[in-house]
Design goal:
Radius of gyration: 19 Å
Number of strands: 16
Low-confidence stretches: none
Number of helices: 7
Mean pLDDT: 96
Length: 264
């Protein structure tokens, strides 16, 4: 069997949205792929610290995370690239001019830094675990690295600001999350490190932030529960995530040759 290099999105691809836990047959399939000699990695927009809280318990230690900025092989972080500093400073300047609140992720943790309370007033608290650090004397110009920038702006307000799209971002309710949106680039860098051919890559995804990694250079598989635009771009559409879609696709292509059998 020819070795393949698998990269899986997490949310609604590997996990059940109802429980936020990995689908049992998907977890089994990841390890069955490894038992068959394939390379298995996550490919996610999640920050490194948040990704490992999911992957360490399931025993997966290869990661393309932070939207492609961070590479981890066998549990060792090889790189974690911050946002382009000049672009980050310009985003912050524009937000301040527009009177929009923002908070800054300056390292690989759940801590965010803020000079005032505008972000909380305009967008409210983030739904995920976050430690807010208030520092009215925060010197933005002296900060060496920015990993993520969260700016409070509603979807209705977006058309007012022509600078909104100057860097890759995701909408998260009442705010925008500026981060790397380069999963494909991260996968390519990982494959170079592995000295492996790009045509042997296989990616699985379901949502808009997976579009960037669906590329004709390799095999792209959309989940049955995924968005139609992604399915239209896919080489193959499998069953829903909760209907054993990961396992069924791998069986279909012969990457595994037996089914997951739940424990009684």
């Amino acid at each position: 069997m020819k070795k393949k290099y698998f990269f899986f999105d997490i949310d609604a691809t590997l996990t059940d949205d109802a429980t936020h836990k990995i689908v049992p047959s998907a977890e089994w399939t990841l390890h069955e792929l490894e038992r068959n000699g394939h390379f298995v990695s996550i490919a996610t927009g999640r920050a490194h610290y948040k990704t490992v809280s999911f992957t360490d318990p399931i025993g997966i230690f290869n990661l393309v995370c932070c939207g492609g900025a961070c590479l981890v092989k066998d549990g060792i972080t090889l790189e974690n690239i911050p946002l382009p500093r000049n672009a980050a400073l310009e985003l912050i300047r524009r937000a301040e001019e527009a009177g929009l609140g923002y908070v800054l992720m300056l390292d690989d943790s759940d801590k965010v830094y803020m000079k005032d309370f505008k972000f909380l007033e305009q967008a409210g608290r983030r739904t995920e675990l976050t430690t807010y650090i208030y520092d009215p004397a925060l010197d933005i110009a002296a900060i060496p690295e920015f990993f993520k920038i969260y700016i409070a702006v509603s979807k209705q307000e977006e058309p007012r600001f022509d600078w909104i799209n100057m860097h890759g971002h995701l909408r998260m309710g009442r705010y925008l999350n500026y981060q790397y949106d380069a999963k494909k680039d991260g996968i390519i860098r990982m494959m170079k490190l592995l000295n492996a051919p790009l045509e042997d890559v296989v990616v699985f995804g379901d949502a808009v932030n997976d579009l960037v990694m669906f590329d004709p250079m390799w095999t792209s598989i959309a989940m049955g529960n995924g968005m139609q635009e992604l399915k239209d771009k896919a080489d193959y559409v499998t069953a829903d995530n909760t209907d054993d879609g990961i396992m069924k696709a791998c069986l279909h292509f012969g990457w595994i040759d037996r089914e997951f059998v739940p424990e009684q």
